[in-house]
Amino acid sequence: MDLKTLTYIVVGATFAVYFGIAIWAKASSTAEFYAAGRGVNPIANGMATAADWMSAASFISMAGLIAFTGYGGSVFLMGWTGGYVLLAMLLAPYLRKFGRFTVPEFIGDRYYSQAARIVAVICLIVASITYVIGQMKGVGVAFSRFMETSFEVGLFSGMAIVFVYAVLGGMKGITYTQIAQYVVLIFAYTVPAVFISLQLTGNPIPQLGLGSTMAGDTVYLLDKLDQIVTELGFKEYTTSKLGGTLNMFLYTLSLMIGTAGLPHVIIRFFTVPKVRDARSSAGWALVFIAILYTTAPAVGAMARLNLINTIQTGPIGEPTANLVAEERPLWMKRWEDTGLLGFEDKNGDGRIQFYNDDNPEFVSKAEAWGWKGNEMTKVDRDIMVLANPEIARLPNWVIALVAAGGLAAALSTAAGLLLAIASSISHDLLKGVFRPNISETGELLASRIAMAGAIVVAGYLGLNPPGFAAQVVALAFGLAASSIFPALMMGIFSKRVNNIGAILGMLSGLSVTLIYIFWFKGWFFIPDTAMAPNDAAHWFLGISPEAFGSVGAAVNFTVAMLVSRVTAAPPDHIQHLVEDIRVPRGAAAASTH
Predict the structure, then answer these.
(1) What is the DSSP string of 453-504?
(2) Which residues are 324's β-sheet partners?
(3) Is domain 3-303+388-469 annotated with CATH 1.20.1050.10?
(4) Nearest to 10 by CA among 470, 357, 406, 573
(5) Is the dihedral of CA 232, 236, 238, 243 positive or negative?
(6) pLDDT digits (tens, 9 = 90+) for 230-288
(7) pTM for the full predicted model
(8) Which of 29, 138, 180, 504 counts the most CB atoms within 10 A of its CB?
(9) Measured between alpha carbons, how far is 60 from 382 in angstroms, rounded to an integer?
(10) Distance CA 97, CA 276 (A)
């Protein structure tokens, strides 16, 4: 069976499952729409949380970035997994004990202020919309290649699918759909990794294959990769960094605290019956997440090696050592049709030279060989995981499975984000502020309308994303880190922070991070025309926009605490509330005996 037909069958079957679950689990009340009736089993919730959290950035883009940044890409592994531990240990159980539907509802009650609740909604929407742009990019990439459509048609198709099962089922439908999506995405990620690890190293376990010798050779895989990339003028794979050491540290920190402040993940812990179940589901989610995250470094390294070996067919510098353009494999032609991969025969020799033409030392060598510049003019990082099985010439059913997995990863997170946006608008703004007497039926309708509107906005912005999926997601994490995380942490662990401090802290952290991102991403007019958007030479202390969320968080904490010190302390009942959140039920009674 040809690849296109097989892909339609596999992807179509998974979509049929998602739609069936949405119909079966249709939300009939606000409790089911917002929190799945608080009756989800901890193991099932752990699996759903893993799918919700492992987005298109995790499935599609992370390994692609690792493939091209090498060691520097470890910030994503350390930041996202470390942040999840932070969320599980410091936030999730306490927020579940508080017993509200949404993050802005907690902030509004803890800081005894409708204004705080509104500011929290603004912060949530800004971070979530930025995050969902990355998911729309992933959906468009997967659809455009495997359904052989344009990126735009692929994106609109993904929007329509999310609309059906997210708007219909709410949190209840999304939860059980995400369980199915986790099963699809984890098989889609690990199966090709096993095949490729066997091909390259003879070891079927990718995590071990990464540190193994090449099949039939005594050279280690990473040593081989280091040798090849440096010979082509790129940085050594195993020692490269994303900027300086400070930027690497702050990038990791921003991803960590951003993860802990993501509202669409936090609300997953509101769906279990008890606080103990929230802890249990967090532990299970970490197990499910680890399966993919320990596989990603191997996938990235092996993808980079296979890509280079496809184009560089012999010793570097020899006239016949590069791929003949007319004989390039079918997978390259298919990805060229999507506009995400491209080449140009700059020296007219009929072959494709792939090297780092930003390296002056290597360019002088290349010119002596008659090379006129890097002829791989576009290699979108987001295609690497999806193209990897094709590059390795794996069976068509594996390629079709990867397509289904990429879509599952993007759609699962998009649904969770859209629910967080919809609930903040309908529950926190409409019911909580403007129409407190609205009926449950009216609130449910408003939630669905808000979600539909969020899907349209996310799709529109996804047509022109500001970077690779993982880069866009990193920006979203930075926004969550600078605004929501500090408010939650201080709300749980500090009795002294008051409403004025929290509001000004959130606004200042969000504002300084947004300004920094907008300035260096070039999203609005830049007066200094000599400064290019995203120019590292002009970054503050070498800190990239994706890493600046940690600085914004520091601003948030500092402003909130300083303002709280010079203004009135929170009321006594709020201070008692903070103590009650952290103290286990029954502890006070036990201490009196």
Answers:
(1) HHHHHHHHHHTS-SS-HHHHHHHHHHHHHHHHHHHHHHHHH-SS--HHHHHH
(2) 351
(3) no
(4) 406
(5) negative
(6) 999 998 998 887 778 888 899 889 888 888 777 777 777 777 777 777 778 888 888 89
(7) 0.78
(8) 138
(9) 6
(10) 9
